[in-house]
Design a protein that fits this description.
The chain is an all-alpha fold and about 250 residues long. Helix content is about 85%, strand content about 0%. Helix 3 runs antiparallel to helix 6 and helix 5 packs parallel to helix 7. The termini are far apart. The mean pLDDT is about 85.
Length: about 250
């Protein structure tokens, strides 16, 4: 059993994946975002881009299922419905891109998205356009395609949802619910098309208890054991470092 698990991870990949997944769970449980952005570039390097998408999204889905009952009463369904439908409709395009683009390009793209997102959050940039069904659908379509190609579909949705004046509980509920509504379909599409193998799902099965533990700990932090401002700055710092590592990996490693 142990040898079968170890065979899913190359070299020190198992312990690296466990450590990254635990930190990602903390981030996801506290604010509902950041976990995929942390895992994606590192898992793409460890496992390949296509397997990374299935592993990351499957782990995230388990946490979404865990958190959704806690937040569903705060979700803004009027905003989430058109956004989620558009995201699902755009996923086949993202899967086609995933199958067509090499791993190095996807790692670079993911890392650039993360760095740009962190820069926008740090500078306080906010979306100032209308919040309507059309705008939400455009954001959802962009997010769905990005999620299918890189597993990181959060930035456009986060920047859109956080642009309003909703309280933190509503923002957190909307983010968690959006992932809950979209992730299962993406896993089905990627596996059904043969872009990634079942080994990617097996890795997720091994890692999701670690993610659940981290998310539980992060949820405790959200409910008053830590400063939200402090968390936000630490989380963004971790994401920025991860993104820069992905961009500079060739220079740093070799």
């Amino acid at each position: 059993m142990i040898s079968a698990i170890v065979s899913l991870f190359a070299g020190i990949g198992l312990w690296t994946a466990i450590g990254v997944t635990l930190v990602a769970g903390l981030m996801r449980g506290f604010a509902g975002f950041g976990s995929a952005m942390l895992m994606a570039p590192i898992f793409a390097i460890l496992f390949g881009s296509a397997d990374m998408v299935v592993t990351v999204v499957a782990i995230e889905l388990v946490v979404s299922v865990q958190l959704f009952p806690q937040v569903r009463r705060h979700a803004d369904w009027k905003t989430l419905t058109p956004m989620s439908i558009a995201a699902c409709a755009a996923m086949p395009l993202g899967v086609w891109l995933l199958a067509s683009i090499d791993k190095g390009t996807i790692v670079t793209a993911v890392s650039a998205i993360i760095v740009a997102f962190v820069a926008m959050m740090w500078t306080g940039w906010k979306y100032r356009g209308p919040r309507s069904a059309i705008a939400g659908s455009i954001v959802g379509a962009l997010s769905g395609a990005m999620m299918a190609t890189t597993s990181v579909g959060g930035p456009p949705v986060l920047l859109y949802l956080l642009s309003g004046n909703d309280p933190p509980a509503v923002n957190r509920a909307n983010i968690v619910t959006y992932y809950f509504l979209t992730q299962f379909l993406l896993i089905v599409i990627v596996l059904a098309t043969g872009v990634a193998g079942w080994e990617a799902l097996a890795r997720a099965v091994v890692l999701f208890p670690v993610m659940v533990l981290g998310a539980w700990m992060g949820g405790r932090l959200f409910h008053g054991l830590a400063s939200e401002r402090l968390y936000r700055n630490v989380a963004l710092g971790i994401l920025f470092a991860t993104g820069m590592f992905g961009l500079l990996r060739n220079w740093l490693i070799g």
